[in-house]
C-alpha cells in the first residue's frame, strides 16, 4: 500500500492557507518566508522556486536573496542576521547545501529560533529531541506526519534510519525517538547494514544512493519511508522489489511534497506566534 505525500500535503497546505488568510484579514499583512540561496546549483534553484511558488499560491509572501557562489561565511551570516532582524520576515529558509567553503552551521545558527521554520538550528534540534512543540526540521516533520496519517504505530517499534545528516537523518531519528520508537541510526561506516535493516519495523532511507535498500533487506510488512531523491526520479529504495512492504512511499509523490507543506505551515505559525499577530 502506498503512502501518498501528495494528498497529505494538499490537506496541510489547505489548512495553512486558511490560517494565512485569517492572519492577513486580522493584520493587513501576509506571512512572509525569506528564501536564501548561495550559488546556482540547478536542483537547489528548482527547489527554492517551488517553495516560493507554493507560498504565493497559499497566500503567503516570499522574499528571495540570491547570493553568488563566491559569498563568504561572514557575508552570508550578515545577510541572514539582517533577515532575522527584519520584522516583515516571519520565516527564513537557507537552501542546503551551500558551497563547500562556507561554514553552513554558522549560517544556520544566524537564523533566530522563532524564524527557524526549516528547523535547522541547534535550538530547534534540541527542542525536537525533547519533544517540545517548536519548529521541526521539515522533511523529518513531514515523515512523521505521513506515518501518523496512515495510522502507523511508532511507539515500541524498531525504526532504522539510514543517513545521519543534520537536516534529515538525525532529526528524523530524534522525532521517532520522541515518539517512543527504538531507533537505530545507520551511516556510511555502519557494518552489516542489510542485517540491521532486516530487523526494522519502520525504515527511513535518507541517503541519496539510488536503490541502496534492496527488497531482501525489507522485513515483510515493514513500513518503508523513502526520503531519497536521485536523478531520474529514483529513491533510495528498490521500489519494484519492495512489494512485500506493509506501506511504502513512492518517489516522487511521497516525502517530497510533505516537506514543502510543513515549511508553509511553520511559516504561517511563525507569523501568528509573533506578539503583534
Ligand atoms: P547527505 O547530507 O549527503 O547525507 C547522506 C547520509 O547518508 C550521510 O549520513 C551518509 O553517511 C549516509 N550514507 C552515504 N552512503 C551510505 C551508505 N552506502 N550506507 C549507509 N549510509 C550512507 O544527504 P541528505 O541531505 O541527508 O539527503 C539524503 C537524501 O534525501 C538525498 O537523496 C536528498 O536528495 C534527499 N532529500 C529529500 C528531501 C525531500 O524533501 N524529499 C529533502 C532533503 C533531502 P556519513 O554521515 O557517514 O557520510
UniProtKB/TrEMBL annotation:
CDD domains xref list: NAD_bind_m-THF_DH_Cyclohyd (cd01080)
Naturally occurring in which organism (per UniProt): Lentzea albida
A cellular component annotation (GO) from this entry: cytosol
Keyword terms of this UniProt record: Amino-acid biosynthesis, Histidine biosynthesis, Hydrolase, Methionine biosynthesis, Multifunctional enzyme, NADP, One-carbon metabolism, Oxidoreductase, Purine biosynthesis
InterPro entries: Aminoacid_DH-like_N_sf, NAD(P)-bd_dom_sf, THF_DH/CycHdrlase, THF_DH/CycHdrlase_cat_dom, THF_DH/CycHdrlase_NAD-bd_dom
The family this protein is said to belong to: Belongs to the tetrahydrofolate dehydrogenase/cyclohydrolase family.
Protein name: Bifunctional protein FolD
Catalytic activity, reaction form: (6R)-5,10-methenyltetrahydrofolate + H2O = (6R)-10-formyltetrahydrofolate + H(+); (6R)-5,10-methylene-5,6,7,8-tetrahydrofolate + NADP(+) = (6R)-5,10-methenyltetrahydrofolate + NADPH
Gene that this polypeptide is encoded by: folD
Protein's job: Catalyzes the oxidation of 5,10-methylenetetrahydrofolate to 5,10-methenyltetrahydrofolate and then the hydrolysis of 5,10-methenyltetrahydrofolate to 10-formyltetrahydrofolate.
Amino acid at each position: 500500500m502506498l503512502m501518498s505525500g501528495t494528498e497529505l500535503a494538499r490537506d496541510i497546505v489547505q489548512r495553512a492557507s486558511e490560517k494565512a488568510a485569517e492572519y492577513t484579514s486580522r493584520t493587513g499583512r501576509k506571512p512572509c518566508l525569506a528564501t536564501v540561496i548561495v550559488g546556482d546549483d540547478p536542483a537547489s534553484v528548482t527547489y527554492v522556486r517551488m517553495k516560493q511558488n507554493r507560498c504565493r499560491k497559499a497566500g503567503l509572501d516570499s522574499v528571495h536573496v540570491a547570493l553568488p557562489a563566491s559569498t563568504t561565511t561572514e557575508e552570508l551570516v550578515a545577510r541572514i542576521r539582517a533577515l532575522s532582524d527584519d520584522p516583515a520576515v516571519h520565516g527564513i529558509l537557507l537552501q542546503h547545501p551551500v558551497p563547500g567553503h562556507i561554514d553552513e552551521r554558522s549560517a544556520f545558527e544566524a537564523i533566530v529560533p522563532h524564524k527557524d521554520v526549516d528547523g535547522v538550528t541547534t535550538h530547534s534540534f534540541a527542542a525536537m529531541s525533547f519533544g517540545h512543540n517548536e519548529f521541526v526540521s521539515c522533511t523529518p516533520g513531514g515523515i512523521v506526519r505521513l506515518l501518523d496519517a496512515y495510522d502507523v504505530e511508532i511507539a515500541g517499534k524498531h525504526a532504522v534510519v539510514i543517513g545521519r545528516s543534520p537536516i534529515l537523518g538525525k532529526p528524523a531519528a530524534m522525532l521517532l525517538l520522541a515518539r517512543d520508537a527504538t531507533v537505530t541510526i545507520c551511516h556510511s561506516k555502519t557494518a552489516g547494514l542489510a542485517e540491521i535493516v532486516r530487523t526494522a519495523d519502520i525504515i527511513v532511507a535518507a541517503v541519496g544512493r539510488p536503490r541502496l535498500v534492496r527488497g531482501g533487506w525489507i522485513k515483510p510488512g515493514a513500513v518503508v519511508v523513502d526520503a531519497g531523491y536521485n536523478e531520474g526520479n529514483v529513491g533510495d529504495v528498490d521500489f519494484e522489489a519492495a512489494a512485500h512492504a506493509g506501506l511504502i512511499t513512492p518517489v516522487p509523490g511521497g516525502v517530497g511534497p510533505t516537506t514543502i507543506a510543513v515549511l508553509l505551515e511553520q511559516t504561517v505559525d511563525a507569523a501568528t506566534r509573533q506578539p503583534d499577530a
